[in-house]
Write a structure and sequence with these properties.
Length: about 140
């Protein structure tokens, strides 16, 4: 799948966003290593803390279907500006690897490509927990 095809899927799902409070639609299309694409849009609710972003919706959908290795994610929001994943979404994505390609797009012809580690440097990952556990074991804690 090309970057432009992935962006197109994100643009299509963006239109399904449920955003009665912010009116800010976001779509995401996540490409698994299997070749499957998992889409997500943001879903708001009156208790704003219960709102879920498009990127996390796509990741959770993929994981619920058994896929945990990903190649790329395309994110689309406001067509007049680049919409980057929020900090929580970046943290969820890094759970599955720092090398994920993140495509931030206004349209299929106007986009930027990053590696997740560029957008979330010095991230906290499962490896950090492994290191902490190893140190506890070595210290007899």
């Amino acid at each position: 799948m090309t970057e432009k095809q992935l962006i197109q899927k994100a643009l299509e799902v963006r239109e399904k966003a449920y955003v009665p409070y912010s009116a800010f639609k976001v779509g995401a299309a996540l490409l698994g290593v299997s070749g499957a694409v998992y889409t997500g849009c943001n879903v708001e609710c009156a208790s704003l803390g219960g709102t879920n972003c498009a990127e996390r919706t796509a990741v959770f959908k993929a994981v619920s279907e058994g896929e945990t290795s990903f190649q790329a994610i395309a994110v689309t929001g406001d067509p007049d500006q680049y919409t980057y994943p929020c900090g929580i979404c970046r943290q969820v994505m890094v759970e599955f690897g720092k090398a994920l390609k993140v495509i931030v797009a206004k349209s299929v012809n106007d986009y930027r490509v990053y590696r997740l580690e560029e957008l979330l440097p010095h991230s906290f990952t499962p490896e950090d927990l492994d290191k902490a556990k190893q140190q506890e074991d070595e210290n007899g804690i």
